[in-house]
Amino acid sequence: MARQPHKGTRASSKPPGVSLNRALSKLGLCSRTQGELLIAEGRVRVGGKVVRDASVRVDLERDRITVDDMPVVAERRVYLMLNKPRGLVTTRDDPQQRGTVYACLEGLDLPFVSPVGRLDKASEGLLLMTNDTRFANRLLDPASHLPKTYHVQIGTGPDEATLQTLRAGATVDGETLTANRIELLRSGGRTAWLEIVLDEGRNRHIRRLLAAHGIDVLRLIRIAIGRLPLGDLAKGSARHLTPEELALLAD
Predict the structure, then answer these.
(1) Is 251 an annotated catalytic residue?
(2) Where are the beta strands (DSSP E) in 30-75?
(3) pTM (2 decimals)?
């Protein structure tokens, strides 16, 4: 069970360990939301006692956690790349019953994995998935400044002045939205493709930046995360990262 601070010592603002539902997620059993349901149903025990409070703090190294009387042990570490198709949401369970990226993993022998960051429903391309929360948190930490590269089809053929205006960024709903780099890849009259590189991931960052300048996004494809490219992975397919690819993300 959760450890109580020793008498005579000052308790920290947050007890040690992690919440029980997060522990189930970190051990690769399920998502935090699914963990909350298992806990509420009385199916989870810590140290032999049923716990119905998902916020109870547990020690992953010392506490014995069981679900339906079966011990929960850490799963093998899994690192996947997925070529996300347009039309799927990046979540495990969707209240609106929309298709999710987990449909792309059906038939694969995998522990529970979570997306590393998100791509919105209309966006495509490289999405990483893992059950290694430390790895995911490192990639998502804004301090890492991990660049993400996108190819974006827009509904106009921009001239150099327009590109310079886009590079200057925009303030939208109090947020300053900028890009590391915006380059014209090719133009076909009424449409064009841009390469846009970000080192942060604000909600719908590229779409909001372009919309602030009156530019419609027709397609948005993430083609690389750091030095890891999407390559020729088929749309809707997933595969394990190689050690060499993991090393590209560790740099």
Answers:
(1) no
(2) 44-46, 49-50, 57-58, 65-67, 70-71
(3) 0.76
Half-sphere exposure at residue 35, Cβ-oriented, CA atoms within 13 angstroms: 24
Per the structure block, which two tokens stand in for 241? 């990262």
Of 11-15, 52-56, 105-109, 118-122, the range with the lowest mean pLDDT is 11-15
The catalytically annotated residue of 59, 63, 94, 120 is: 120
* Cα–Cα distance, 118 to 127 (Å, whole number): 7
Q: Which residues pair with 149 in a beta bridge?
A: 197, 224
Q: How far apart are CA 199 and CA 220, in angstroms?
A: 16
CB-based contacts of 203, cutoff 8 Å, min separation 6: none
Name the H helices within the chain: 20-26, 32-40, 133-140, 160-167, 205-211, 243-250
Q: How high is the pLDDT of residue 251?
A: 67
Q: 227 and 97 in contact (C-beta within 8 Å)?
A: no
| φ, ψ (nearest 5 deg) of residue 245 | -70, -40
Q: Is-contact 20 54, C-beta < 8 A?
A: yes
Distance CA 35, CA 23 (A): 9
Please, what is the Cα angle at 190 between 189 and 193, to 5 degrees? 80
Burial level of 73, CB count in 10 A (0-12/13-18/19+)?
A: exposed
Which of 111, 115, 112 lies closest to 101 in space, CA to CA? 115
- Separation between Cα atoms, residue 25 and residue 239, nearest integer Å: 21
